[in-house]
TrEMBL record:
It comes from the Bacteria. The keyword Nucleotide-binding does not apply. This is Ubiquinone biosynthesis O-methyltransferase. Its EC number is 2.1.1.222, 2.1.1.64. It catalyses: a 3-demethylubiquinol + S-adenosyl-L-methionine = a ubiquinol + S-adenosyl-L-homocysteine + H(+); a 3-(all-trans-polyprenyl)benzene-1,2-diol + S-adenosyl-L-methionine = a 2-methoxy-6-(all-trans-polyprenyl)phenol + S-adenosyl-L-homocysteine + H(+). O-methyltransferase that catalyzes the 2 O-methylation steps in the ubiquinone biosynthetic pathway. It is an enzyme of class 2 (transferase). Pfam families: Methyltransf_23. Belongs to the methyltransferase superfamily. UbiG/COQ3 family. It comes from Azoarcus taiwanensis. The gene is ubiG. S-adenosyl-L-methionine binds at R37, G56, D77, M121.
């Protein structure tokens, strides 16, 4: 069993898991960004009919979205409670997702090269060794397949927006959701990807406008950003 997990992080998500599908809860930001990231991933991969793995799927907001787009989705996470909520929600939505309690590293041992698309969103800033998670995602995807990451940049602006702004001023997230020291610069993420045989195709920012309260994708990668990579053949 691979131990690239922080028990305190898993507890944080497990304690809140029952509110995962409440769009006004602590998970409101995930609900609001979901259509943007789903559409972006779908445009790059044409999800219908693809075999997709969602790493760190939590309550399944993105997993279900991708299943709704016609993909055959498996979701893995290390929070049993989050997976329980994800499984229950399938009864409500009528969608099909295979949820399993497993780390990316262990799943890669068992299923190397099994997926057309791997998504790993808002997870890397919660694990002790992001390079190991990235290497596992690279192992899980087929040669030529797509791997997507999203995380938080590390600089004074991201500290101000993602920690002080989101947790203390706007109260979009509970205090302590994010540990600034675990944020990852795009250059670091690109290096981990390269070391794992993933070629970066696109880096795109995601910004929140506190006045309009709307998220959008664009050039500003200072705070939240997403990366699209392809595994070398
Ligand atoms: C911020 S949530 C993101 C959920 C989902 N990826 C999304 O973007 O909608 C982070 C998730 O990562 C999970 N997690 C934390 N550490 C993990 C690890 N080492 N392996 C797998 N999942 C982990 C948590 O249980 C939680 O469900």
């Amino acid at each position: 069993m691979n131990t690239n997990a922080d028990p305190a992080e898993l507890r944080k998500f497990s304690d809140l898991a029952h509110r995962w599908w409440d769009p006004a809860s602590e998970f409101k930001p995930l609900h609001e960004i979901n259509p943007l990231r789903l559409d972006w991933i779908d445009r790059k991969t044409a999800l219908a009919g693809k075999t997709v793995l969602d790493v760190g799927c939590g309550g399944g907001i993105l997993s279900e979205g991708m299943a709704g787009a016609g993909a055959n989705v498996t979701g893995i996470d290390l929070s049993e409670k989050a997976l329980g909520v994800a499984r229950l929600h399938l009864f409500e939505s009528g969608r099909k997702v295979d949820y399993q309690l497993c780390s990316a590293e262990d799943f890669a041992e068992a299923h190397p090269g099994a997926f057309d698309v791997v998504t790993c969103m808002e997870l890397l800033e919660h694990v002790p060794n992001p390079a190991s998670t990235i290497a596992a995602c690279a192992r899980l995807v087929k040669p030529g397949g797509h791997v997507f990451f999203s995380t938080l940049n590390r600089n004074p602006k991201s500290y101000l927006f993602a920690v002080i702004g989101a947790e203390y001023v706007l109260k979009l997230l509970p205090r302590g959701t994010h540990d600034y020291t675990k944020f990852i610069k795009p250059s670091e993420l690109a290096r981990y990807c390269r070391q794992s045989g993933l070629e970066t195709q696109e880096l795109i920012g995601m910004s929140y406008n506190p006045l309009t309260r709307v998220y959008s994708l664009g050039r500003d990668t200072d705070v939240n950003y997403l990366v699209h990579t392809i595994r070398e053949r």
